[in-house]
Amino acid sequence: MRKILLITFLALAATAQSQEAKTLSLKDAITYALENKADAKKAKLKVENSAYQIQEVRSRALPQIAATGSLNYNPILQTSVIDGSSFGQPGTSIQATFGQKWTSTAGLSLTQNLFDQSVFTGLKAAKTTREFYQINEQLTTEQVIERVANNYYGVYVQRQNLTVLDSTYNNTNKVKNIIKGQYDNGLAKKIDLDRIVVKLSNINTQRQQVINAVQLQENALKFYMGMPIETAIVIPQAAFEVTPQEFAEAPNTANRTEYLLMKKQEQLLEYQKKSVLAGYYPTLSLSAGYNFIGQGPQFPWGAKPSQGVYWSDYSAIGLNLNVPIFSGFRTHSKVKQADIELRSIKEDLVDTKLALDLAFANAKTQIDNSIITIKNQKSNVKLAQEVLNNTKNNYIQGLTSLTDLLDAENANTEAQNNYTAAVLDYKLAEIQLIKSKGELTTLINN
């Protein structure tokens, strides 16, 4: 049994080691998300469903054909009282029983709308609904791209923070070994050794916290991609080069997907109002039917006239006209409600345009500020590293205190983290700038 367990464990371990981490560029991450994320799939399904909605509305303009049938048993037949003068008995009343115990009918009916304004309006609205869902699919695509890109860069920052801590830990550990050697030779105080050990412990604690943050950020990225959480991923360093953006004039808001979607929604509300106004129009339809009826004192199916059961056919063709005259102001009220909805969405369009213009202006400002910050922090990182190297050499030669060395290490770590944060701010602002220009889908082609 122990051998079996050992073999199983080794096999599982070998399988785990054989699963290599998946290298993801931003383009790979976005492409994967658009193919696997539920939001993207559901948006496509809505576009597909809109085709059936059009067919549903179109069906109202096509002939409606139905087959009907019935079988009735009348245990007590209705009695009617008629004037006896019709039967040569004036001044009397005669009770007459009409109908048969069994009645069965079977037939076909046809109805065709000849004029119904709501049907014509519905067809136009259904086609517009399909266009609405197509634009909504585009908006969903952009939202998926934005979320994936933001979290993709978030993973990078957390991993950079971890790299900085690893480097700091290694450098501090080297200093600890130097101090320990000096302490063993009576050239350093025990308090210095204790302080550096505490420093290493604190760095290790921070490192565990960042490792946890990396895992959480990776899980968030996989969720927005629709990727299994257990999949290991690697993000290449080359994906985070900072390239200054060229600013053109403010983008045309009318071309933004969010704005186009609201304009299409406005169009749908206009059709909704027209559909309500159709309640003032008359409707005209054609109806036709052809039926068989069987009647008799016994079960009619399969029975013959000799058994008292008779079958006959009948047919009718007619025109049906409905002219609305007064509906208690119901139609009038519905028209007014549709007017208010139209006025409301027009206000939303104005507000949306302002919001989109604001997003572009803010992204542009953030890009400018981030580039300046990145340049400053890059110089600061270089300077902090030089200070750390000089301080370390001075400490080894006994020309400076351990406090100065620890302060230099802290300053170096802080400078590197600030640079990483500045890069993240830039990349997030870059996404918002691309979004404000309506060009998020270009990230798939990069």
From TrEMBL:
Read off the PANTHER family from this record.
OUTER MEMBRANE PROTEIN TOLC (PTHR30026:SF20)
Record's subcellular location: Cell outer membrane
Q: Spell out the GO cellular component terms annotated for this protein, sorted alphabetically and separated by semicolons.
A: cell outer membrane; efflux pump complex
Picking any one GO molecular function of the record gives: efflux transmembrane transporter activity
Q: Does the keyword Transcription apply?
A: no
Q: What is this protein called?
A: TolC family protein
Is Ribosomal protein included in the keywords of this UniProt record? no
Give the similarity note. Answer: Belongs to the outer membrane factor (OMF) (TC 1.B.17) family.
- Please state the protein's primary subcellular location: membrane
Which N-terminal residues, if any, form the signal peptide?
A: 1-21
Which keywords does UniProt give here? Cell outer membrane, Membrane, Signal, Transmembrane, Transmembrane beta strand, Transport
